[in-house]
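Memo to structure team: turn this sequence into structure tokens by end of day. - J.P.
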Amino acid sequence: MKIVIAGGSGFIGEPLVRALAARGNVAVLSRNPSKVKAGRGVAWNPREAGGAWRDDVANADVVINLAGENVGAGRWTESRKQRILESRIDATRALVDAMQSAPRARTFISASAVGYYGSRGDEMLDESAGAGRGFLVDVTRRWEEEALRANDIARVVIPRFGVVLASDGGALSKMLLPFRMGVGGRIGSGAQWMPWIDRDDVIRFIEWAIDREEARGVYNVAAPVPVTNRDFTKALASALHRPAIFPLPAFVLRIVFGEMADETLLTSERVLPARATAEGFTFAYGDVARSLRHALAR
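Reply from structure team:
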């Protein structure tokens, strides 16, 4: 099996490459292939029409798209918002164009995010729920539209990921220091719903989507038991054997992070993985306390 992964050297991509290595040749598209630690590094620039990477994509049995600038790396300026959008659109468009150059049976798994739904309070959100409003809503909607251009040349699967939990990166790694110092606490009111997913379950879902020929379209890839930020905070404090008594007020977050605070830290998305559950995917870490213990044990 020939597999190509864009974004294969990141927080999700690198462990995914290691998991898929037993299946065959795994090529990792990277602007700096010398830094690729797992898989075969292949130089790519999605804005350039040429490049050897196009042949790898055209001949692949499975193409996985995880490329995109980190949404939570800093305050959103207008130029940063443009980079967040363009990094996803450019990468997805380039992959689809390369696949269209050589029609064949293949699977295209293109990442998205639960940010598609926007902040919806206590509303339960399965895959039938419509898009919300906001910058991230627009980003994910356009990102998915680019991926769906491949529908006539590939079996397209679009996983909408929740907050991915692992201790060596992502949101959890940023939370650990204040909690370990005993100064952690809920964010804002703590009542906002937080869709989360253990990173190992993300990798298991991608492998399941590769193997299941019937899988296609959008899937919510978030644990079947969503929690509020307040409950997540309690679970993390318990896992670390620390108190959680220092709340972080919403107004402080808005001062520090601006628009990003409302669309990431304070947003409420009660997401349910209805399709994956109905189609037989099982979550190894469906309970947040178990997932946190698993993450922290590594």
